[in-house]
Amino acid sequence: MASGGGNNRNGTHRNSLKGTTTTSTVSTDKPLSVNSNPSKPAFKNKSSPLTGASSGLRKSSPGSLGGGAAKDDAGVPGRVRVAVRLRPRNAEESVADADFADCVELQPELKRLKLRKNNWDTDTYEFDEVLTEFASQKRVYEVVAKPVVEGVLDGYNGTIMAYGQTGTGKTYTLGRLGEEDTANRGIMVRAMEDILAEVSPEIDSVLVSYLQLYMESLQDLLDPTNDNISIVEEPKSGDVSLPGATLVEIRDQQSFLELLRLGEAHRHAANTKLNTESSRSHALLMVHVKRTVKGREPAHSSDNGNSTSMARSLRPPLVRKGKLVVVDLAGSERIDKSGSDGHTREEAKSINLSLSALGKCINALAENSAHVPVRDSKLTRLLRDSFGGTARTSLVITVGPSPRHRGETASTIMFGQRAMKVENMLKLKEEFDYKSLARRLDIQLDKLIMEHERKQKAFEVEIERMTAEAQNRISEAERNYADAVEKERLKYQKDYMESIKKLEEKWMMNQQNQGNERKEQMVHIAEEVAEVKKLLSKETSLRKAAEEEVDNLKSQLAQLKMSEASANSEILKLRKMVEDEVCQKEKLEGEISMLQSQLLHLSFEADEVCYLCNLQVWHVGLQKILSLLEAEDADVRIHAVKVVANLAAEETNQQKIVEAGGLKSLLMLLGSSDDETIHRVAAGAIANLAMNEKNQELIMSQGGISLLSTTASHAKDPQTLRMVAGAIANLCGNDKLQTKLRGEGGIKALLEIVKCGHPDVLAQVARGIANFAKCESRASTQGSKTGRSLLIEDGALPWIVQNANSDASPIRRHNELALCHLAQHEVNAKDMISEGALWELVRISQDCPREDIRTLAHRTLASSPDFIAGLKRLRINY
Ligand code: ADP
Ligand code: MG
Known about the structure:
Blueprint: H1 65-72, E1 81-86, H2 91-96, E2 104-107, E3 112-118, E4 121-126, E5 129-131, H3 137-153, E6 158-164, H4 170-175, H5 187-198, E7 205-214, E8 217-220, E9 232-233, E10 240-241, E11 248-249, H6 253-273, E12 282-293, H7 299-304, H8 309-314, E13 318-328, H9 345-366, H10 378-382, E14 392-399, H11 406-419, H12 432-513, H13 518-609, H14 615-628, H15 634-648, H16 651-659, H17 662-672, H18 676-689, H19 693-701, H20 704-714, H21 718-732, H22 738-743, H23 746-753, H24 759-782, H25 790-793, H26 797-803, H27 809-823, H28 829-834, H29 837-847, H30 851-863, H31 865-873
Parallel strand pairs: 1-5, 1-14, 6-13, 6-14
Antiparallel strand pairs: 2-3, 3-4, 7-8, 7-11, 7-12, 9-10, 12-13
Helix pairs in contact: 3-5, 12-13, 14-15, 15-18, 17-18, 18-21, 20-21, 20-23, 21-24, 23-24, 24-27, 27-30, 29-30
């Protein structure tokens, strides 16, 4: 989808408003190499006369979407930058969702969005920018659109798209004219203001066309008779043009506003004629900006200083062309394929086509897929030269706060996530197993490394020990040898001396005796000499033996050295094994990421095929999983209960799970298992199932309260308590079950659970109490209940009062609500006054951020005789 430099040739330019045409200008096509990075245009310099204008447009802040792109995406041109914008609650939602929290929670400083799965679970997603319900239109423009507009002024193509469910603020974000209050101006108006501030009317041109795409037919919103415009693509450059579309030259902001108004009127008329709503069609504003760069010299001629002014004046002006496309996409909600909303099946398919083709292209681009199916729809063909390459694209996804549209909101968020690249995406639920597999492998690897280190250490110690022992033995042998040699030497010396002495004596005697004995003596001497010789040879053999001993020890030492070498090679082998493990792990991680990307693909495809889902197959699968809840192997049981809990988190599965006996099995698991993980996960699943009234009755009739309270009393993990409290809290919201729930100890169980003190657990307890108080109040108003509140009977009031001003907002909000409900009925007033609830009610009526709760507290205080008397007694002026 690269644009190859951002040239737009729209052929003949027609104009229905002002009758201007484009002037023919010699355009110098920029080679891509001049500046392949849109974030740092080579010849962009606001203060330089070369740009033609020195005033006006401020640079977008570094924190903005495109600014960020310049920094972190230098190597990833064309990365779609995605912002999410939350619409504030509207009047209807403020009333209808009064008791419910928003389905999303934003953390703009972390650029995160938390999507509530239910009362106790959220998924977290990161975006390039997170815009809260308080974000001004100015800020939205600056972070989403300004970098793109700057790129267009520098000669690049840019696209700004809004995607989201109908009614979430796409048109508000893009198309507001801001006539009543200029602060409300949307992206289109602000973009044109910035463009007009930068161009010079004498030499530059700004041409606009405005179109609607409905059922793959492209209509000209500036000329309603022109309702089947064809798209022309230049095969070589990939440029897209609409020769048939009206092009209006814009010279001032006023004429642009008129053009938008006219387009909107035509859109309305066209849609009435086609009997559809504008939410079904895509609106496309195309702005072609052509700027002449005055006096720009190619670098080589100005550098060497050889150019003459004559040559300069003959040089054709340099022209930069950029195209900005602003797309207000059709509502992302699924169109009923049955045709029940007045469309035939064929129409429904065609209405969806461009949007789902866009989704597929974004997927393919995000995954760097070799094939991007741009040709599948008109929208993607139109946006072909606005994606990738040197173009900048910003997507703003709009969501509403209502928990009733959670499904649509979730799918919008997933679209945004896919547009942000696969790596950035939060793992889907199914990926849990891959994650745990990776974790298991990590642990195994850690174990292997530890084991290897332990063995290596033991080896080293052993080798040290053997070396020391060998050394000892060698030195001992050397010592022995030296001793033996010394001893022999001394003995030999002594013997020798003695022999000499004897010989001398004998010689003396010989001298004396002379003569006849001489011969005999000679023989004797010869014998003596022979004896000495014998002694000498004995000495020599002893010495030999000692030498042999030394040799022996030496060879032992060599052997020891050899075994050390073999130990070293063993260590090397182990190291290799560890490396292989690491390699294997990397391979598995690769597989995991491949599977994840396949999952991604599948998740998008799943939208299309879920209609074809074979319910029976699903049912058989479910039966199998449920049967595994009773498996012998504890691991299998844990996995099965996790799978059931994941399924139970989806509202569409809940009925099937209950019908297949899943609820019964989960309750049974609470009673029969000792494993806390099983307790926690099963209680979570039960809590999910307990959102439905029919299931609440089933849970109660199967002894749910006592099972949940026992589970709570054994729990060590606060998350288990949170699940249990969540389940009971859901049961508390059932009008029909009030007495039974209290009778079976439901309220007492909640009051036991608060001892854990964990704020998430307390929030669930407070929710249960508020639910209970609300039902009770309703029953009292209808006359079906008389007497004091069962909450007060069971001793819940002190806790409610104590936590009505808790720092944790969910705990505070629910307890405030509970107090307001209790205060509705005069029978409760005395207890409430004596427990100090009156002070809290006064505070709520003045400080509570929720207007409806404030008003309720105020009304109650003003109308209850007991409270009025109490206020007087306490001298509170009210
Ligand atoms: P979409 O084009 O997505 O169908 P709209 O832009 O028509 O939605 O918005 C639906 C309603 O919500 C309009 O009345 C609009 O004024 C209002 N609205 C949308 N976004 C905001 C916002 N950020 N602040 C105040 N009102 C908004
Ligand atoms: Mg709209």
